[in-house]
């Protein structure tokens, strides 16, 4: 991968509609004319009421939902990449090397121990197994996951324990773009603090972060800007600078 540019991500006139095949092909429009830019080292936080399309935007940026109009671009020093028309194998490479995603819930794989779930993104990049294990254990310890759990599959872990495995897996590979969908939702205060630190460290190393945080304290401490999504998405290009309150323009 080559160097990142300013902005690193741009979203122009984005449109999303779902076709509901179970409802006679009815169309549900959830996003219209969304614009945003995101630079390296910056954390942009999406806000707005439930159902407005925050998670849908992250899923389009991670390739799990199709874009129905407009453009998504990543900008590198030697050119730009349009995410709207990428083949599946390109998404695989992009998710491995460029775009990380931390959702609220861990996708549990039966029989795979927690530490291996966390190591996997590094192994996919060819990092040596011993090195990957040390880095995974360091993160799990930092997130206060008891050592006795590291070698167990996380299927039976509590919600907060699973979420910490998920966070470790999401942050371990230091992706240049990180999508965070309520990563602190079921964490206690001490572990929320660790996640805030991980986000601040990611920003310091130049990662661009786009997140959803319902916890106002976390949001206020990590956000450089807020992007309030409004019905029908008349959202101005590049949201207003963040001044500690939602919707400041
Ligand atoms: N796969 C899908 N098929 C059909 N409709 C969907 C699909 N995914 C999301 N939607 C709809 O899109 C709208 C936006 O959902 P989304 O999850 O993005 O909202 P949100 O802003 O993240 O909400 P919340 O804050 O409650 O998580 C909702 O009306 C939802 O029902």
Question: Could you walk me through the main structural features you see in this protein, from its secondary elements to its overall organization?
Answer:
By secondary structure, the chain is of the alpha/beta class. The chain has a domain at 107-173. 32% of the residues lie in helices and 26% in strands. It has seven helices and nine strands; from the N terminus they run E-E-E-H-E-E-H-E-H-H-H-E-H-E-H-E. The chain has helices spanning 54-61, 88-97, 114-124, 129-142, 159-172, 189-204, 216-222, and strands at residues 4-20, 26-38, 43-47, 69-76, 79-82, 99-102, 177-181, 208-212, 225-228. Strands 6-7-8-3-9 form a five-stranded parallel beta sheet, with helices on both faces. A four-stranded antiparallel beta sheet has the order 2-1-4-5, with no helix packed on it. Helix 3 crosses helix 4, helix 3 (114-124) packs parallel to helix 5 and helix 4 packs across helix 5. The chain is globular. Residues 234-249 have low confidence and may be disordered. The structure holds adenosine-5'-triphosphate. Residues 18, 28, 30, 50-56 line the site of adenosine-5'-triphosphate (ATP). The site of adenosine-5'-triphosphate has 10 residues, from strand 2 and helix 1.
